[in-house]
Known about the structure:
Elements: E1 18-24, H1 32-45, E2 48-53, E3 70-74, H2 77-85, E4 90-92, H3 115-127, E5 132-137, H4 139-148, E6 157-161, H5 176-197, E7 200-205, H6 212-221, E8 225-227, H7 235-247, E9 251-256, H8 261-267, H9 273-283, E10 294-297, H10 310-328, E11 334-340, E12 343-348, H11 372-384
Parallel strand pairs: 1-2, 1-5, 3-4, 5-6, 7-9, 7-10, 8-9
Antiparallel strand pairs: 2-3, 11-12
Helix pairs in contact: 1-10, 5-6, 7-11
Amino acid sequence: MHMPEGFSAPSDLPAARRRMLLVFDGGNAPGYSSAAVALVEEGERRGYEMWAATEGFRSLTSDRVAEPAFERLIVSRKDRYALLARGIPARSMGRRVLDAGCDFRSERYRGFLNRERRLEAAATFREEGFTHVVCVGGDGTFSAACAWTEDLPDIPIGFVNVSIDNDIAGDRAIGFMTAIEAGATIARGLLEDAYTHKRVYILEMMGNRSGRHALHCGVAARAHVIVLPSMHFGEEVLAEMTLALQKTDYALVVVAEGYEAERRKRETPGMSAATFLLKQLETAGLRDAPDKRVIAEPFSRYLRGVRPQFVEVATAYLKATLLMEAFERGRSRVMPYVLAASDVGVRDFADVRREDAVEAEFMTLLDRLGMPAFQRQVVESSGKRVG
Length: 387
C-alpha cells in the first residue's frame, strides 16, 4: 500500500531512515511469530521502519488476495493506535513472541518460480519505498530469496531459517526443536498405548526428503523401527520385519511421509506412507487380529500449531541481532546461523546449501528388533543420501 499524502511517523516515534520488509513464506512452523517479534524489536531499536507482507511473496504481485498487502509492525500498542489514526495499517508485536503459527505468510507461493512474477514483485518493492528485505521460512523461501537477488541487486537481503524440516546445512532451524518435542510426544503416547493394549502402531511422521523429523521423534520416543524416505524394501526385509513384529508383544514403527513417495504416486495415489507400509507387511504375512491389533496412524498436523519452546525464542532473538549487525556492517545476501551457544555467525547465500541427509550417528538407532537384513538396508540407503 502507498502512504497517505503527507504521512509522517507519530511524534513520539523516531523518523525512519530505512524501511525493512519482512516476507514470510513456506510451510507453517513453530517460531514464525517469534522470528517476527525479534526482527521487529531489533529493527525498530536500530531505527528501521518495519513492515510485513501480509501474504508472503504473493503480496508483492498481482496474485495477491488479502488487503492491505502490507502492514506496519511496531512494538507498542500506543504507537499502533497513533498509526491507525493516520490511516496506516499497523500491528503491535510486543506480546506475540509465543504465538503459534504466523499472521503473515502464504503456503509456498509457486508463482515466485516465474521470473515475470519476481520482476513484478521487485517493482512493487521499489514503488513502496522499501530499502531492505528479510525473507523468513525454509529451503523454498531461501531459494526464492536467492532468485530475487537478481532483480534487486542493490538491495540488502537477508534470510532467517524457520522450518520443521531443518534442511538448510550449517544451521539449526527455528521450529525444529519444538516440532521434535511435539512429535515425540505423539509417538510416545502411541508407544504407551501399544504396550497397554498389545498393539503394533505404524505412525507416519513428517520427513519428505531426509526424514530427519521422523528420525529424531522416533529415536526420542524409543520406536522399535524407523523407516526413512531413502529406503526401499525387498521381500527379504519385509518378511524379516513381519516376523519380528509378530514375535514382539507390542511395537511402534515410525515411517517418514516421504517413504516410497514416487511409487505410491504411481501405484496407489493418495495412500499414506503408513498405510502403504502396512499393506506391504500384510502381503508378507502380518495380520491385524482382535488379540493384537496392527494399526496405521495417519500423519498428524498437530505439531504445526504448537507454540514454540523458549529455546527457539532465544534463537530467534540471536538470529535477528546477528542479521541486523551484518546489515549495519554493509553486508547483504546473508543468513544468520546458530548451531550451539558458541557456534553462531552469518553465512553468505553462496555458502548455504540444502541438506537432504540425516545424521549418520543416528543410523544405528533405527532398529530395536534386531533385524540383520533391515540393518543392511540401512547401510545401503545411507550411502545413497546426499549431504
